[in-house]
Amino acid sequence: MAVRERWAVRWGGGRRGAWRRAVERRRDRGFVTAEAAVALPVLVLFAMALVWALLAACAQIQCVDAARAGARAAARQDPPDSVLAMARRLAPDGARVTVSREGDLVHVVVAANPPGPDALGLDLSHEAVALAEETVGARG
């Protein structure tokens, strides 16, 4: 046997090597499909989780903005209906707005349900506190 033929037999060359490679390729054909069938749902779930987190972050920012605007309006001595309307307009849909006063401070709390399934126990709320304008500069 010549050197070239020995090399071909040893390293899978020649007719036998081509036949072996063809058989091995046929055996491996379903692996790509199986891997895609497992990986694709995982990627979809991961993308959905990212979208949900983005929506929850946006709702939290809306709660912060609504509480701050409500506290500023309440500190200016705006009518209570106007304060609630302003806070609800900036808050996410279905949010609960609470306005209270303790001494010289006005408290506005905005709480909302997170987007998506209710099973996820996420608390979206923010409290803003402002000093009432009538007390600014008052000497006691």
Give a structural overview.
With 140 residues, this protein is of the alpha+beta class. Helix content is 58%, strand content 16%. It is built from three helices and three strands; from the N terminus they run αααβββ. The protein has helices at residues 3-10, 14-75, 80-90; strands at 96-102, 105-112, 124-131. Strands 1-2-3 form a three-stranded antiparallel β-sheet, covered by helices on one side. Helix 2 packs antiparallel against helix 3 (80-90). The radius of gyration is 33 Å and the shape is rod-shaped.
Quick overview:
This protein has 140 residues and is an alpha+beta fold. 58% of the residues lie in helices and 16% in strands.
Query: Looking across the biggest beta sheet, what order are the strands in?
Result: 1-2-3
**Strands, count:** 3
* Rg (CA only): 33 Å
Multimeric organization: single chain
> Strand share of the residues?
15-25%
Low-confidence stretches: none
End-to-end C-alpha gap:
113 Å
Mean pLDDT: 83
Order of helices and strands: HHHEEE
Structural class: alpha+beta
**Main sheet: strands, sense, barrel:** 3 strands, antiparallel
